[in-house]
Design goal:
CATH topology of chain B: Rossmann fold
Keywords (chain B): ATP-binding, Nucleotide-binding, Transport
Radius of gyration of chain B: 18 Å
Number of strands of chain A: 13
Order of helices and strands of chain B: EEEHEEHEHHHEHEHEE
Shape of chain A: elongated
Oligomer: heterodimer
CATH class of chain B: Alpha Beta
GO molecular function, one term (chain B): ATP hydrolysis activity
Pfam families (chain B): ABC_tran (PF00005)
Number of domains of chain B: 1
InterPro entries (chain A): ABC-4/HrtB_transporter (IPR051125), ABC3_permease_C (IPR003838)
Radius of gyration of chain A: 29 Å
Number of domains of chain A: 2
CATH architecture of chain B: 3-Layer(aba) Sandwich
Strand content of chain B: 15-25%
Number of strands of chain B: 10
Strand order of the largest sheet of chain B: 6-7-8-3-9-10
Protein name (chain B): ABC transporter ATP-binding protein
C-alpha cells in the first residue's frame, strides 16, 4: 500500500510541477517541449487524416457487392487521381464470363476518372468523379448512386469495336447536381484532356461517396463511353472489378482472374485500405516515424536542459531521502505529462489541419481528401505519450547521474 | 508551541548514547576531481576536515561556528549523511555512515534526518502544504494523511492560514518556517540546519530560532552559523578553524 501511495504521490507531484511551470511559463524548456510535440503531432494527425481519406476511398463502394478486385499496386486510384495507376485489362470479356457463373449475381468493371462537366450554356465547369460501369438489369447502386436510370449493359462497347450506339446517359449524385446547377434532362459536356463528349443527365440521385468531411460529386456513365473519352479502349481497361455474390466459393475463381490483384471482401473494406494501398499506409507510417523521431529528439533535448536547470530541486529531494528511482520516476512522469499535453494541443491543431487541407483541395480540385476519424484523437495522444516515454530516457539518465552535493550548491 | 522558548536543557549525554557522533573524521577532496584530465594520483588534495570529533545527543542544540572555509558545511554534510568521511567514523542514530551504500544513506536521511537549508529550497510550483508534505510522499504516506500532517506542522510554526500559498507569496521568514515544518514532518531524530537565519532580518531570525530551539527537546539539533544570536542560544558551540575543532563547550 505504501508503495502505491509513493507511486501515485510521485506521479501527482510530477503533474503539479509541470502544470505549475506551464501556468507561470517559468520554464522555457517545458513550454518548448509542449510546442515541439504539438507541432509533430499536428503534422502527424493531418497527414494521417489525408492517408485515411485516400485509403478509405480507394475502393468504389456499392451495395450488394461482396468482392472488390483491385490491382495490388493500386495506390493512386484515389478519388482525386486515377490516371497512371495499374489497371485491369479485357474487362468486358472477364465480366461477361463472371456473370455467366450462376453463383454470381452481378459483376461490373469500374473505371474512375476525374472529369470536368460543364452545363449547357453555363460559363464554368466543375470537377466530378466519373465512374464508368456496366449497369445491370436489376438496378443496384455503385458509389452510392443508383444505376436505375442507365440503360442496362454497355451498347457502345459492341464486342470491343466501340462503334455501338452511344447512350449519352449520365446519372449524377445530388452533390454533383448541386455543384453544376443541373437537374434530370439537362445537357452537360464532359471533358478529359482534349476529349469532349455530350451527355444528358438521366437522373439525379441521393447518395454520396464520402471523403473527408464532405460528399464527393459523382457521375455514373457507361464504361465504354468513359473509356472512349479517356483513351482506354485499347486493352479494355478499368480500375476495379465489383462482384456481387452469396457464394463464398466464388472467391478463388475471382482471385484467379488476374495476376497481382487483391480480392477484398465487403467486411474487410476498412482493412483493405491499409492492406492493399501502400501510398496511404506509407504516408501514415512515415508521418508516425517522423513525428516520433522529431518529437523524441526535441523533448529529450529540452527536458534534458530542464533537468539541468532543475538539478538543485532534485538534489533537495535526494537530501530529503528520495530514492534515485523516485527522482527518475518523477522526471519520466514529467516528460510524459509534458508530451501528452503537447499531444492534446497537437490533436486540436491537427483537426484544424485536416479541415484546412480539405478547404484547400476543395478550392483547387473540388474534392476533400482528408478524413477525420475520432480514432485519430486517441492515436495521436497515444503517440505523444510514447514520445514522452521514449524521450524520458535521456533526462532520467541525467537525473541518475546528478550528484546531490554538487547540485545542492547549484544556483 | 510558544514563540519564545529558552529553557535550560541538560548537558550532553555520554558519547556512547549520542545520536550524532564523529570520531577523528578526516575529509579530503581532490581538486578538479570532476575533470576527465586531472584524476591522476598527483592531483592536489584539500583537507576540509582534519581529525574532527564531536557528539550530539537527543535534546541538545549545538551550534557549529567558524569563519568561511573552516569546514562547517563539510561537517554538516557528513552529519546529514549527504557525504562520507575519507577517514574516521560518523555514526548517526547508531548507524556507521561509512558502511552504508548511497542507497543506504538515502534511507537513513529519509528515516532519521531533517534538513533546513539557508536558501529554503522550497519547490516554487507547490503550496506551503505541498512543500511540507514532500518527505511523506517518499515514505508512502497516503494523500489524506500527508495533508493532515502537513497542516498540523504548519499550524505549529504559525502558518496554518498560509497553507495554500505558494513560496513566492510568502515572506522570507515564512518560507524558512515552511522549510522547518518540512524538515520536521517526518519527526526525525536529527535536525540539521545550515545558516537558517542567514537570509533573515534579526527579528524574523529570532522567531525562526524559537521554532528550532523548541524542536530540540525531542531530537538532536545541529546548526551551522555565523550568527551570534544563534550561538548565544545554543546549548553548546563547536568552533572550527581550518578543519580543526578549536573549542567545544
Amino acid at each position: 500500500m505504501a508503495r502505491r501511495h509513493r507511486l501515485f504521490g510521485v506521479v501527482g507531484l510530477a503533474g503539479r510541477r509541470v502544470l505549475g511551470r506551464l501556468r507561470t511559463t517559468s520554464s522555457k524548456q517545458v513550454l518548448l517541449s509542449v510546442l515541439g510535440v504539438a507541432l509533430a503531432v499536428t503534422l502527424m494527425t493531418t497527414v494521417s487524416g489525408i492517408a485515411l481519406g485516400l485509403g478509405a476511398e480507394n475502393a468504389i463502394q456499392s451495395e450488394g457487392v461482396d468482392y472488390w478486385v483491385v490491382p495490388e499496386a493500386s495506390t493512386a486510384s484515389s478519388v482525386a487521381v486515377s490516371v497512371g495507376s495499374p489497371q485491369l485489362g479485357d474487362t468486358h470479356a472477364i465480366t461477361d464470363r463472371l456473370s455467366r457463373d450462376e453463383r454470381v449475381d452481378y459483376a461490373t468493371p469500374v473505371q474512375t476518372q476525374l472529369v470536368t462537366l460543364a452545363p449547357e450554356g453555363g460559363s464554368t465547369d466543375e470537377y466530378v468523379l466519373a465512374a464508368g460501369i456496366i449497369p445491370p438489369e436489376e438496378p443496384t447502386s455503385v458509389v452510392g448512386v443508383s444505376t436505375e436510370a442507365l440503360t442496362p449493359g454497355d451498347p457502345h462497347y459492341a464486342n470491343g469495336s466501340y462503334d455501338g450506339p452511344r447512350t449519352g446517359e449520365l446519372v449524377l449524385n445530388d452533390a454533383a447536381a448541386e455543384l453544376l446547377g443541373v437537374s434530370a434532362g439537362d445537357e452537360v459536356t464532359a471533358s478529359v484532356g482534349g476529349s469532349k463528349a455530350a451527355f444528358t443527365v438521366a437522373d439525379v440521385r441521393e447518395g454520396s461517396l464520402s471523403s473527408g468531411v464532405g460528399p464527393v460529386p459523382v457521375a455514373l456513365v457507361h464504361l465504354s463511353e468513359l473509356q472512349t473519352m479517356t483513351g482506354s479502349t485499347e486493352g479494355d481497361l478499368a480500375d476495379q472489378l465489383l462482384v456481387s455474390t452469396d457464394s463464398a466459393g466464388v472467391r478463388s475463381d475471382i482471385e484467379a482472374l488476374y495476376p497481382r490483384t487483391s480480392v477484398v471482401t465487403q467486411t474487410g473494406l476498412a482493412v483493405r485500405g491499409a492492406s492493399t494501398s501502400s501510398l496511404p499506409l506509407a504516408m501514415a507510417a512515415v508521418s508516425l516515424v517522423v513525428a516520433v523521431l522529431v518529437g523524441v529528439l526535441f523533448v529529450a533535448t529540452m527536458m534534458g536542459l530542464e533537468v539541468n536547470a532543475d538539478r538543485r530541486n532534485l538534489a533537495v529531494l535526494s537530501a530529503m531521502g528520495y530514492r534515485t528511482s523516485s527522482q527518475m520516476l518523477l522526471v519520466v512522469a514529467e516528460t510524459v505529462v509534458v508530451a501528452t499535453v503537447g499531444g492534446v494541443v497537437g490533436v486540436v491543431a491537427g483537426i484544424g489541419g485536416i479541415h484546412l487541407t480539405n478547404a484547400i483541395t476543395r478550392e483547387l480540385l473540388g474534392v476533400q481528401v482528408a478524413l477525420f476519424d475520432p480514432v485519430l484523437v486517441g492515436y495521436s495522444v497515444a503517440v505523444a505519450a510514447l514520445i514522452g516515454l521514449v524521450s524520458s530516457v535521456y533526462p532520467a539518465w541525467l537525473t541518475w547521474r546528478t550528484p546531490t552535493l554538487e547540485a545542492m550548491s547549484h544556483d | 508551541m510558544s514563540d519564545s522558548v529558552s529553557e535550560h536543557r541538560p548537558p550532553a549525554a555520554a558519547d556512547s548514547a549520542a545520536t550524532l557522533r564523529c570520531e577523528q573524521v578526516v575529509r579530503e577532496y581532490t581538486r578538479g576531481s570532476d575533470s576527465l584530465f586531472s584524476r591522476g594520483s598527483d592531483a592536489p588534495t584539500v583537507r576540509a576536515l582534519d581529525g574532527v570529533s564531536i557528539s550530539v545527543s537527543t535534546g541538545e542544540f549545538v551550534a557549529i561556528a567558524g569563519p568561511s572555509g573552516s569546514g562547517k558545511s563539510t561537517l554538516l554534510h557528513l552529519l546529514a549523511a549527504l557525504d562520507t568521511p575519507t577517514r574516521g567514523d560518523v555514526r548517526i542514530a547508531g548507524t556507521d555512515v561509512r558502511s552504508l551504500s548511497n542507497r543506504g544513506r538515502t534511507k537513513l536521511r529519509r528515516d532519521t534526518i531533517g534538513i533546513v537549508f539557508q536558501h529554503f529550497h522550497l519547490l516554487p510550483s507547490l503550496s506551503a502544504r505541498g512543500n511540507v508534505a514532500l518527505p511523506l510522499i517518499e515514505r508512502g504516506v497516503s494523500k489524506r494523511d500527508r495533508r493532515a500532517r502537513a497542516e498540523e506542522l504548519l499550524e505549529r510554526v504559525g502558518l496554518g492560514d498560509r497553507a495554500g500559498h505558494k513560496p513566492g507569496e510568502l515572506s522570507g521568514g515564512e518560507q524558512q518556517r515552511v522549510a522547518i515544518a518540512r524538515a520536521l514532518v517526518s519527526d526525525p531524530a536529527v535536525l540539521i540546519a545550515d545558516e537558517p537565519t542567514g537570509e533573515l532580518d534579526t527579528e524574523t531570525g529570532q522567531r525562526v530560532l524559537d521554532y528550532i530551539e523548541q524542536t530540540a527537546t525531542e531530537r538532536a539539533v545541529v546548526v551551522a552559523t555565523h550568527d551570534e544570536h544563534v550561538i548565544e542560544r545554543a546549548d553548546r558551540v563547536v568552533r572550527l578553524r581550518d578543519g580543526h575543532v578549536v573549542s567545544d563547550g
